[in-house]
């Protein structure tokens, strides 16, 4: 892993001997003849024509990720969101259906619910732990199963081999967003995934400088098994004049050739060469970073558990987690640096917690060298319905924490400062009537701070 992370895809091909893959800052590529460019467009040879669909720096990144994830092909794209969009577009058509975990990054849920719905694609969400639920949700028109290997923000793990076995029984490819894990901690292809997507913006880059995305074909998906279902791959493409599935016979990904020719080109979701180089440099230290970050996060999550004001810590190491066995079986090196805490005092407590932090930065990113926090209910997951937020474990008091590379003791001191600020808040004085209190309890809502308790309602609470 650590060797491939430094040398993968770069064999000092630069004519000047550049040691680090240089940024090929060019929009187009000179060809020796008319025939040469014509052959490239006719897909009779490989090479570069125009950087919207490929660039030598980006190609190094693609090759390196293919090695790290054990895939047969990779496309680098403009963002993690573009990776999810393009991967799904390559599998779906109007009338298709997606079965998705209900624990997803908010932007992915919005894409399914809104943009894909506009394109006449429907989706069903399921609790990733409900294996019968996955199977029951699959329909004849289901063309993708979608989940996160470590879910954002509650760090929930899934039994991917069991879910993949169900999906493959119906010849439905499994798409895994493995952003939080990175290939250093978990390779979804080894556990049954067909396609992997990454927001390389996070751990792969690791320095919070660059937005980038990746799509990996693990080599499991074979459109020839159901040629009638995947006609866009298994029959000659009118626009491009080729049958994309033929690429599999050369050991290449027909799915990704199709996705690059059509969607990367049409959507223009190109990763700039300078961004590719930033991610390449980040990947060089991925292996080291993920051990350190995972260990620090585990330790801090365990220490936050059962602290006053903390209703719950969402990390696989917390006693009673249903994914403890998966953590032990599939994540021997740890579960990355993202976890969340649910503060008993709701949004007011979350605000006090975040505002008191001096070392952690309030920002909607994860996987940075710096530790970050955000309040998902009002940011990353704010466009979801209350039911969708509840399903993915986001309460009004949830604070997402992304642990960086700072010293554990300093991070602990900052979290102590934040919890002290929460403790100093006026105790919640709400619950005006017994009925309201009961409704709050039944609905598991926090009573807002600053209103009066009646004796009866206090008793109920
Ligand atoms: C799990 C996950 N997937 C995808 C994305 C989208 O990635 P990007 O911001 O690079 O578009 C994010 C962003 O937070 C994410 O956390």
UniProtKB/TrEMBL annotation:
Its cofactor is pyridoxal 5'-phosphate. Pfam families: Cys_Met_Meta_PP. Keywords: Pyridoxal phosphate, Transferase. PROSITE patterns: CYS_MET_METAB_PP. Gene3D superfamilies: Aspartate Aminotransferase, domain 1, Type I PLP-dependent aspartate aminotransferase-like (Major domain). The keyword Transferase applies. Residues 442-461 are annotated as: Disordered. Residues 452-461 have a biased composition (Basic and acidic residues). Belongs to the trans-sulfuration enzymes family. This is O-acetylhomoserine aminocarboxypropyltransferase/cysteine synthase.
